[in-house]
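Usage example:
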Amino acid sequence: MPLQYAILGFLSWQPLTGYDLKKQFAAWETFPWSGNNNQIYTALVQLHRAALVSKEVEQPEHGPARKVYTITTAGLAALRQWLLSPPELPQVKHLFLAQLAWADQLAPEELDELLGVYEEEIYVKLLMVQEQAQRPSDAPQRTPRERYLWAMIQQNWRSFYEHELAWVRQVRQEVQAL
Amino acid sequence: MPLQYAILGFLSWQPLTGYDLKKQFAAWETFPWSGNNNQIYTALVQLHRAALVSKEVEQPEHGPARKVYTITTAGLAALRQWLLSPPELPQVKHLFLAQLAWADQLAPEELDELLGVYEEEIYVKLLMVQEQAQRPSDAPQRTPRERYLWAMIQQNWRSFYEHELAWVRQVRQEVQAL
DNA sequence: ACCGACATGTAAGCTGTTACATGATTCC
DNA sequence: GGAATCATGTAACAGCTTACATGTCGGT
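Running the assembly step on the lines above writes:
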């Protein structure tokens, strides 16, 4: 269900094809649908059946048909309704913490190695979201408020990985002292 | 798959029944399996088939049979192997950020209301994890190192929600200024 | 008399990932 | 010649949630 609304969100910005949407989802942490064919194309079919989007088929001389989807007024209304619905808490699946919970069974060097690998992974991810944020606006910027909101969304991700990095560095240091 | 290993983790601490495991999973943020019957009971069957756990059936005079599961040496080896495997990045599904991404379509009061509800939800959750951390140790504390690791895991959760709370308060304030 | 905790399990359905399948165009 | 991008879709499977189903015991 939220995937449908996220699609409507992008279409409220501009008409797009399934392929475009796929790329958008892949590009932003905020939209946690990994740019997955199966879900996006079937969601578009459902949205079209529900008349929340309209479809225009462009047939170029060469290559496959492009199906460009546009949001309808019913779609805009549905999007607005979702925006007003009570927010969900972030769902965090932090498997590394579950791994750490039993990591006392490891030797000191093994534990340090594990923490080191995690530190490196987080660091790489942090670089990724930082670069993502600086990418010249591939994002809606219709009003100053919208620009502000997107900036704060990016900041949320950046500071999440920054704090995670600081946390793992602290753990690594203090665990060596034990 | 990780669920199986998490079960082995708890059983490396002490023998438990499916019901006990369900309560453990429900009690800790760190183990993101919502205390769900279906998954836990079937996972135990699979672990038993793989001989990673052994089963003892206690039949009390009244009531249903209690099946107490104990980890085997093969199970301990499998757990250790998982602990050494490369850590995964945390998977964060932050739907509120996706909602905010399109929230410029809302009136100022509507947006403030949305942020206010989210702030309250995060605040309640923060209280929950704080209380969870102070709960008299229902957790393994076999060595100082293990005690330290569990404390740092709890701290990770606490600071996540603290930062989220600070973030939403900032956004709310600054969005009012626009 | 009813509710919650104890204790086990099954069924249906939604979500999500990976891989398969096709075919043209552009860049190296 | 081969890889990447554009562009659409399908199939199989794994993960996860919700609800159903049954029955005892202790507390209010």
